[in-house]
Amino acid sequence: MMLRIRSRDGLERIQVDGPQITIFQLKTLIESQLQIPIQNQTLSTDQNLLLAKTPADLLRFSDMTDRSIPLSALNLSHGSIIFLYYHGERTVRGGPTVSPAGSFGRKMTMDDLIAKQTRITRQESPHCDSVSFDRDSANAFQRFVNETLAFASKRGGFMYGTITDEGRVEVDFIYEPPQQGLEDDLVLLRDPEEEKLVDAIAAGLGRKRVGFIFTQTIMQEKKDYNFSNKEIIQAAELHAESELKEWVTVVVKLEANEDGAADVHFEAFQMSDMCVKLFKDGWFVTEFGENDDPKLSKMKKDVVVGGKDVKEVDNDFFLVVVKIFDHQGPLSTSFPIENRKNLVALRALKSHLDRTKSLPFVKRISDFHLLLFLAKSQGLGSDVPALAECVNTQTAVPEGYQLLIESMANAA
Length: 412
Known about the structure:
The chain is an alpha+beta fold and about 400 residues long. The protein has 12 helices and 18 strands. The strands form 5 sheets. Strands 17-14-13-12-8-9-7-18 form an 8-stranded mixed β-sheet. The chain has a 4-stranded mixed β-sheet with strand order 2-1-4-3, covered by helices on one side.
């Protein structure tokens, strides 16, 4: 049978008579076939062996130290991988003499070794059970990109909501930061001070940032991918920044239906654990050329996909599908939304309050976008979280706040 031996020199193969041979016989075959003396060999089924730095580190790998044990006792069979650490020099068959630096040095760098062991596989299950959208919030977002932007440029926003004990992400509103949308790129012009206000309001409402939503353009619809390489990197960056395992990324696109008409379509994903880790470790190539295939992500080092060492990975390997539902949340979405083309003025506040004057005052201000407007433009930044708590508990707004807000509206 054939065994694969992975060492600092890469992956090599040796032929053995069968799983009944002992570890000592295996070491003898390695000596004869790979020219590594038995006394220089340390074997293990644990790939971390290749990361050992000192003789003391090697002592941790004891699963193959008993030379009398047959390979079958370790569940090794045809095609199995065994990891080999050795010191000294050797001549690789068909290659140059390998001269590691120091008795426990290695030809390859530590990054090279780790790269050789990095396998990209599909993650079958997300960390969240599903994502549910407040209908009005989702509709306000898609209506703007559909009717105003006509899906000609990209748009994005941060989703805020709660996470249930069952792992369900419930999105109640979307904050749209300052941004520049292009045909195939989305640049978020993030304002740290504004985002602090948003997070403070969200906390008062009993919500937190739970995901990112963005649109693709009609030009992208012709491409054969779910996410482009640029979108993978942006989504991975925001997922990593969140430090939230349930973080969800949603893409909104225009797709042709069976009748040939165009429908707005929402799809939800999580970035895989491996994708987020690779981003944090700086493995993604972030510069793109005109001839680069957008459905492939480029790596700075080789990774293993399907048993092959590659530097380009199909983007779908990094996506984990999440189920989508909808619900009717407690907040309205009727106040003009921030950071869009039209500047929101005080007359919008007056119009909103006039339109809702039959409702209790706390209901009239139960709109995230209205609360953010008050916090940003009316000098109420430190007071708005208290108003948000009133909204969250649906308790009466203190009279002083109510009079102040109404006077602002009447001054329009």
